[in-house]
Amino acid sequence: MPLPPITVLTESELRTCVGLDEESLQAVEDGFTRLAQGMATVPPIMMIPVPERSGEVDVKSAYVEGWESFAVKIASGFFDNPKQGLPSGSGMMIVVSAETGFPQAVLLDNGYLTDIRTALAGAIAAKYLARNKIDSVGVVGTGTQGRYQVRALQLVRGFNRILAYDREPAAAAAYAREMTSELGRDVTVVSDPQMVVRESELVITATPSRTPYVRAEWLHAGQHITAMGSDSEEKQELEPQVLGRADRIVCDRKSQCFRLGELHHAKDAGILDESHDITELGELTAGSKQGRAAEGEITVCDLTGVGVQDTAIALLAFRKAKEKGLGLMVDG
Amino acid sequence: MPLPPITVLTESELRTCVGLDEESLQAVEDGFTRLAQGMATVPPIMMIPVPERSGEVDVKSAYVEGWESFAVKIASGFFDNPKQGLPSGSGMMIVVSAETGFPQAVLLDNGYLTDIRTALAGAIAAKYLARNKIDSVGVVGTGTQGRYQVRALQLVRGFNRILAYDREPAAAAAYAREMTSELGRDVTVVSDPQMVVRESELVITATPSRTPYVRAEWLHAGQHITAMGSDSEEKQELEPQVLGRADRIVCDRKSQCFRLGELHHAKDAGILDESHDITELGELTAGSKQGRAAEGEITVCDLTGVGVQDTAIALLAFRKAKEKGLGLMVDG
Prior knowledge:
Shape of chain A: globular
CATH topology of the largest domain in chain A: Rossmann fold
Number of domains of chain A: 2
Largest sheet of chain A: 8 strands, mixed
Oligomer: homodimer
Low-confidence stretches of chain A: none
Mean pLDDT of chain A: 96
Number of strands of chain A: 16
Number of helices of chain A: 11
Structural class of chain A: alpha/beta
CATH architecture of the largest domain in chain A: 3-Layer(aba) Sandwich
Largest interface: A-B, 54 and 54 residues
Strand content of chain A: 25-35%
CATH superfamily of the largest domain in chain A: NAD(P)-binding Rossmann-like Domain
Helix content of chain A: 25-40%
């Protein structure tokens, strides 16, 4: 029997298949739900550091019981690339059949699908945790995710303005210009992260920082914070006391956040540990635990990125590509 | 700056680029040497079990300092596949730039490169450990590696005949027929693994067995055994006492073999532990430790498969493909 062919899809094709919409949001929610229900096998992230180039390649995967395929994702961050005019991040995904183990598709997305699924996790956090009425959204870090997170947020919440901070004023200015035009909302650059946090009902931190930006004393009642930047032991965006002040702490995956996320630093600081009442995002999407329970609660969500998000978005992209007849078929 | 294109290579193209020859042997030796010299970063294998289909997908990788690229390999074994007339194993490799982290090539080899690099590790073991003059080679397990191992062995040793055992007599008969014609040597099926071990100077075990085939009492002076089948905690081809009787124990990677290979079972049986004098294959290829030192020694090599083999063979294949102008270029 000849082996089945393998579909190769490019970034431009994949962009026509999935975007920040209700269907993608639902796919990623479904991934988190199955994770919380114990139906997902998520191996530890494989990390391959390339210190000579300030680089790292991470491999993530998750098999979800009952789904016909799953993804293996290769994602890279090489922080010397911009000096050569190249983006620091890249990536691709492989879709593997859960029935035969054969590779089915190669998604040459250059990190686009990761941007989408990461932004959607932020939107899911906001959906269950942010107050319904938001005037101001604060953004700390105006890079790619500083953009994608607010785009995705529009799926679940309205808001009137964005307050943006970046340690590079030129980056913040470009962000304000571009996002004002894209979103048709007021985007204002502020010179201090304190102003972002004090004046916004919802704050998104999207930096690769190793020293925290957000201080506990700046928090106020009713606020929600999504910290999506930290995904390695050294990275940290929130002062540990921020977790101490939160009325409700949510994360994408406890075991991972206690190793790579803000929870890790809060634990080191003696503020909380694994025995605390910490909710996983999938418990919110599954309805087994409650999101925001009162207008005045301070809620914090720590995101590190989980393989189920990759599998969910990759399978959606592959299904849509097949429906559209896209992709190059290569003999197996 | 546009992203560099990605080269997609098929199995048939890759077969014209690398095979069982001196150049491939040298590439894999070089990989082991660098591993032994501390120049390779080899993350733990990522394992994704799919128990509903008796399947498992493994991801391996290794970054070697100074090499311009490295491979990430996805390999699968789904043991219900043959019921549908499909091969149980499959796989592919991604070549990633160690300079930018960008994917450079997708090697759709269906496991061919794994077959090659696995066989070459066996040949390297024989090169440094087997006696120079061999009359009979014993093969336990007449599947794909039962074939590839003896093909690769020809690069480093002459021999007159093969004694082959398989628990499936029909598989052994087909092997004898095919390999006699391919090698132009006498290939004889025997009905008992004991005869294979008692009558061969070099024995290769190449099974996915969970109960050991080779007993210590069958060993004899001057013999070399390569056990390449076990690559998971449950698999075992050698009785633990075989390691106890060996004068020289070699393995591809100690940390891995004490988890997944024969060393693991010997340790559980109290026969040896990490403090014993165990040589890594790369110490032989680097010349920092001695191989066979006397005609009468009994030597054993435990192979589990290491990411440096994948990186070595993938980079050779990619380089040869570029030289030949092969592959489909897909826009990055």
